[in-house]
Specification:
This protein is α/β, with parallel strands linked by helices. Among the domains are: about 140 residues, Rossmann fold (3-Layer(aba) Sandwich); about 70 residues, Tetratricopeptide repeat domain (Serine Threonine Protein Phosphatase 5, Tetratricopeptide repeat, Alpha Horseshoe); about 90 residues, Tetratricopeptide repeat domain (Serine Threonine Protein Phosphatase 5, Tetratricopeptide repeat, Alpha Horseshoe), CATH 1.25.40. Helix content is about 60%, strand content about 10%. The protein contains 19 helices and 6 strands. Strands 1, 2, 3, 4, 5 and 6 form a 6-stranded mixed β-sheet that branches. The N terminus is likely disordered.
Length: about 425
Amino acid sequence: MEGWQWLPIDVDKISGAISRSVEPRSSRPSLAVLRLKNLSKDEDQEYFVSGICEDLQSSLSKSHLFDVIAGISSFSFDPQAVEPQQVGRLLNVRYVVQGSVRKAGNRIRVSANLVDTELAKEIWADRFDSDIEDIFDLQDNITAALSSAIIPEITRAEIERTRTIRISSLSSWDHYLRALPLMQQLTYDANREAVSLLTKSNDQQPRFSSALAMLARCHVTAAYQFWGETPESELALAQQASDLAISADPDNPTAYDAKAAIHVYSRDYDAAILAARRAIELDPSLASSYGALAAALAFSGNSDEALAVCHAADHISPRDPDRSQRQMAIVIAHFVNRDYAAAKAECQKFILIKPNWFGVYTLLAASCVYLGQKEAARTAIARLLEIIPGYTIEKHKKRVWLENEEDRKRLLDGMKKAGLAVS
């Protein structure tokens, strides 16, 4: 890796030139990564600092959600001589990432913070400590940790920003953002409103790949939850939206993540694994793709590999705002391994995230039966019937995603013993 030398610049002298060269800001959030401060006396550390800055900028660009300013502009600022608000004005960006690197012996610490330059407010800060073994692995790990933390924080800040905008003034990006928290509520009304917002987003900006991908996810959710006309019709709408998302942007990891979720629902686990791995290849910090990959592995009986994927995702993105899919994969993996105590405990963690997802109560009920906890099993079935009245064993036979016949039988027998009617 070639290093580069930072040369001090006269901010006032170049401000006019930079302002003229920067394009007007789009409705999407704009971001600049400043060069990290090297707090070590070791001159050779400059190569490592440069590498992290360049890799972080590249990683954030891979999300396809933000306009990331080129390093030739953002890296030229002396981070000790310019305030983030000034960078925001000069580069026409709302968010600025800054920080420092300190080395002591065989330990290294990277500190970073994210600033909203329009509000002059720090919205996130953290530090990452590690031993120095393989310098390239260390650089990759730190970049992934920073990227997976920064992207959700910007998304949260942008969602909050849209709450103050009049409905008549919402842009395509604003409609997209407003849909995201609705998707997490997992109710019929919220999902329907999210579909409406994402449709408006695409009406305003045709072929907005990320909005199409989220629209596909809404329809998959509707298929799972028996919303809409039929699960089959919702699945067809999901397929259509995901195909359009990939066509609009073949390098958008979110589009392949949505495609993986569709393949999981369709029980095409090989295709799901390929789509999820493609999403991860495009953006290793996209935590939801690890969930789709783990779910496909768990349902197909590769429980230990699924748990390993979930562990890796937790390391990459410990603050993931929606880890529900990989949490479900953990539940399934433990059930497949007949570790019913662990399956029950993980079901309870999942319910804290998404209490309205009916599938978790089928696994909770069966796990409790095999633990000899019949009252808890009956309570789980009662909650299932609150979500989907009239649900039966016969109906669930069409909804069991476990590929192994013995695993399917154990689940259905457990649900029957928990008190769910056969037909």
